[in-house]
Amino acid sequence: MPLVLFTPDPSDTSTTTINGISFSIPALNAFHYALYSNNTISNGSECYLAFDGFRPSMLDNGTWLHATSCYIPYYGAGRRAVASIVFGVGFGLCVLGALMNLKKHGAQHLREDKRFKLVGRRWQWYWMLFVSACAMISLFTGVDVDRYYLQQMPIMLQTFFFTLTLPVALAAVWESIRHWGSWQERQLVDADPYGMPPSARHVRIQFYTPLVFYVLAWLTFFLTIPKPWSPIQKQNTPEQTRDIAIPAATDARAKAGALVAALAWAVIAFSLTHTLRTFHPGKPLLSALPKHLLLNLLFLALCTAYAIASSFSWSLALANQHVSIAYPFAMGYAPLLLILLTANVAGFRTENEDKQLIAQRGARGRAHDAELNLVKKPEWWGRNRAARFASDDERLGNMAGEAGGGRPTARAMEMGDMKVRQRSRSRSVRDPFRDESPERDRGTGTGMQARGSEVARGGNEASASMEVEATSQPAGPAPQQRIRSMLDV
């Protein structure tokens, strides 16, 4: 921006008048302030407006009063702002659609298989949410690009988040196409676990293709994102734009990142063709491939082409504050929005994969029953149909009634009480605790001891008489021993 020399006042050569306010020329020179042709006063780090109603004043110590920064929304909303609002609302709706599809298709209705992880069908929606968030931030910060008097933060944020959408969009489309191939394999394996013949080439491609793609996608990210972005906002003068902004936006890293993104797109296309050859050999492309995957691949190619073109041509780049909005919005934001819209519409139209597998298993079961002439019983057919509607207490009562209680419960008990008549007769009836010593060897006490001995003697005589009677009876043949418990052994 051309400098404007300070014009001394006729009455005082040490002062100058700017927009009706008197300034000290020595103070302005001491703090390296200069007046520019766009009616701003700046020293390289501070910038203030000095036209129309903006009338700042500076003290001798460098303090500014009633000053307004140059980096404020001064102009009205232009075409870029209107287009940013419209597209931002569209991406916001895509966020809602992606969340609904994530809940619908990410739900689990069957046991998870280690070959087909549940997170595998969620990744595409995660990446689409990331794309939508980056695009929304880029668009809503781009509203102030047309409104700022001098460019600063808005154009830098809009360019940064728009550049970030490219590697994320590559990952979103890759995951959708990769998961479609996994879904084809899952259906085949579910119908016949040995229906897919082992192929060393197929296994190698399945292993190395994701590695190659994510290496290229991360390389795109590291080439285009981690770099200084503040030079892009230096577009206040043609000299600044030529010397600072254009080299920063079209440097070698931007060109290399766009070309690597094209290689990543080629890997996605190769993976799609390999899936078609493996699971749908001989079928036409349009009949075997879902339409939304083919459209998303084409839209992604348009995004990649715009990234390459804008890295070589400043007139097409979104970082240019004077760019025609037809280029970045028609070739940059519109393909991204179409990718999200087609994916969300396809997600709404298709059913959860677990539910599809359940339906396919039911159809195969009915076909097998028809081949074997089996007729399936109706739902109400069954002796336990009433138990389906019983409460927990009723079910416990039914279980207790089935098991039984009381004497029937002890009917099969092995270690129960044994009756006396069921014991073996070969056992001795003698008391094992009886004292066999002669009476004369036993001492006789006095008092309670004597009385106890008499009682014991009387008991011994009674037991002896019972033994004589028992032995005097004729012994007949002993009955056969029946062992009823372990005590009889």
TrEMBL record:
The chain crosses the membrane at residues 81-102, 123-143, 155-174, 205-225, 256-276, 297-319, 325-346. Residues 428-443 have a biased composition (Basic and acidic residues). It holds the Pfam family DUF2434. Keywords: Membrane, Transmembrane, Transmembrane helix. It comes from the Eukaryota. Coiled coil: none annotated. The keyword Transmembrane helix applies. It comes from Paraphaeosphaeria minitans. This is Uncharacterized protein. Residues 393-489 are annotated as: Disordered.
